[in-house]
Write a structure and sequence with these properties.
single chain, alpha+beta, 6 strands, 21% strand, elongated
């Protein structure tokens, strides 16, 4: 592994651990030339499908785009960064395991919305309002009503 500081090619592994549900290997390395330490992460590279956008364009699946969307939706919400990372990784695995060569962006968007609906209602509404491009307040309120009905009455409330 090349040292990011001095660009020497020889480094040794000082410590190694499994992280992110045993899907990533974290390695602490030391450069033999300059002695500085750095961290690397190893993960299996899956053959991911190409994403087919609404306009027909095709682009490679990017886990970081999904993670960025999750972070934006969950901004200032009680959802941990680890939980978001795990969900993005799970979606990536799910897509890789389908074996499909292409997947419509709609499928990914719907999967992210389903995840957010379980994770945090406010984050779900934030994401849905952008993803579904509500035309007016009535469409937005209709979606809010569906969310409230699907959750049922709050503790202490009668149905």
């Amino acid at each position: 592994m090349q040292c990011p500081f001095c660009r020497e090619m020889d480094s040794r592994v000082v410590d190694s651990r499994l992280v992110a549900g045993a899907t990533v290997t974290w390695r602490r390395r030391a450069c033999d030339a300059c002695g500085r330490r750095f961290t690397t992460y190893e993960r299996v590279e899956h053959q991911l499908p190409v994403v087919v956008k609404k306009d027909g364009q095709r682009e490679p699946f990017e886990r970081e785009k999904v993670l960025r969307s999750l972070r934006i939706a969950c901004n200032k919400r009680p959802v941990s960064a680890d939980a978001l990372d795990e969900h993005a990784a799970a979606l990536e695995r799910e897509l890789a395991e389908t074996g499909e060569k292409e997947v419509p962006s709609r499928v990914i968007g719907e999967r992210v919305m389903a995840l957010l609906k379980q994770l945090d209602g406010v984050a779900y509404v934030r994401f849905a309002s952008v993803y579904r491009s509500f035309r007016d307040i009535d469409e937005f309120m209709d979606e809010m009503g569906k969310l409230v009905r699907s959750r049922g009455p709050a503790d202490g409330e009668s149905p």
